[in-house]
Amino acid sequence: MPIVTVIGDGQLARMMQTEATELGLTIRLLAGATDSSAAQVTPDITVGDYTQLADVQAVASGASAVTFDHEHVPNDILHTLIDSGINVQPVPDALIYAQDKLKMREKMQELGLPVPWFTNVTDPAALPSGKPICLKAIRGGYDGHGVWFTDDAPTLAAELMDKGVDLMAEDKVELKRELSILSARRPSGDIAQWAITETIQTDGICVEALTPAPGLTDEQEETIRHIGRTVAEKLGVTGVLAVELFETTDGEILINELAMRPHNTGHWTQDGSVTSQFEQHLRAVLDLPLGSTALTAPATCMVNTLGGDKEQDIPAAMRTVWETYPEAKIHWYGKSYRAGRKLGHVNVSGADATTVRARARAAAAIIVGKHE
């Protein structure tokens, strides 16, 4: 059976391993440590450094495909793999737009897709002052890291650039809510899309995802689906692509971020879709027929379980959840406790959005110790 090398050892790789087992595939993992989230459940692991060519070559050799649970592998390493005949999916020419926020914004603008006003920060003094601005590190930011909101962009930008941070600036959008569209594309070109998701972010971290997103107009839905298809096709993305979006207070849809791998906003697919994003990603990178993305219930809500103020007795909390909410599906990452850390998530599916959202929130609250 095919071997798929996954570079990265977090919860996304862990959940790919679960699906690989069902598909009869072998996951070969490049992990940073033997006790990492994915290494705990993956038999074939190599401990190494994804920034070192020799380590990456060692796990890539003989694999049917090489893919990722993060976007941080240096592109020169990936080009070296491709030059030696290794099947890398997605290719670095696509990944660059998930690695570099400025290049992504410029490419989206070139493709005629909607983005907020933005600029490369070369002279902090030229930035607007007295209005809300979002400053972003061009590379390396995630889960709220590398993002700063300010009404005094010139001063803050100068301070950050003095520390060596390369910056872009964009308008702080007047938000109604945030949304996400997940698509999967095979190298041969077939694309499948899931239902559009409404997300809630706290301190830059996705804490909740509700699918299908309620209240979208037909025009908004077609705009969002067009964005997902266009990005996948024009950038040559393979595997799962997540496009995070803003819906403004006047109903405009704007692109926020891209991720070229399974994504937090798609965890609901494990229990709310015929084919999960993790299974679909593996199918796609191997250029296999894509699975159905039909909903298995009218509504599904995913709530992340972030580490609370103090560590909980997780087995006891899980038992309480299952006794109280037997329909709740708990997905645990095997990570050590840290306040604010993503430790797992809960999915609840059912007949209506209001009920599944309330029950998923309540179940997650039990696990993190915030329930009454």
From TrEMBL:
One of its GO terms (molecular function) is ATP binding. Its EC number is 6.3.4.18. PROSITE patterns: ATP_GRASP. Pathway: Purine metabolism; IMP biosynthesis via de novo pathway; 5-amino-1-(5-phospho-D-ribosyl)imidazole-4-carboxylate from 5-amino-1-(5-phospho-D-ribosyl)imidazole (N5-CAIR route): step 1/2. It catalyses: 5-amino-1-(5-phospho-beta-D-ribosyl)imidazole + hydrogencarbonate + ATP = 5-carboxyamino-1-(5-phospho-D-ribosyl)imidazole + ADP + phosphate + 2 H(+). Transmembrane segments: none annotated. Pfam families: ATP-grasp, PurK_C, RS_preATP-grasp-like. Keywords: ATP-binding, Ligase, Nucleotide-binding, Purine biosynthesis. Residues 105-286 form the ATP-grasp domain. The keyword ATP-binding applies. ATP binds at K101, K136, E170, D171, K172, V173, E178, N256, E257. GO terms for biological process: 'de novo' IMP biosynthetic process. Gene3D superfamilies: 3.40.50.20, ATP-grasp fold, A domain (3.30.1490.20), ATP-grasp fold, B domain (3.30.470.20). GO terms for cellular component: cytosol. Belongs to the PurK/PurT family. Homodimer. HAMAP family: PurK (MF_01928). Catalyzes the ATP-dependent conversion of 5-aminoimidazole ribonucleotide (AIR) and HCO(3)- to N5-carboxyaminoimidazole ribonucleotide (N5-CAIR). Catalyzes the ATP-dependent conversion of 5-aminoimidazole ribonucleotide (AIR) and HCO(3)(-) to N5-carboxyaminoimidazole ribonucleotide (N5-CAIR). This is N5-carboxyaminoimidazole ribonucleotide synthase. It comes from Corynebacterium pyruviciproducens ATCC BAA-1742. The gene is purK.
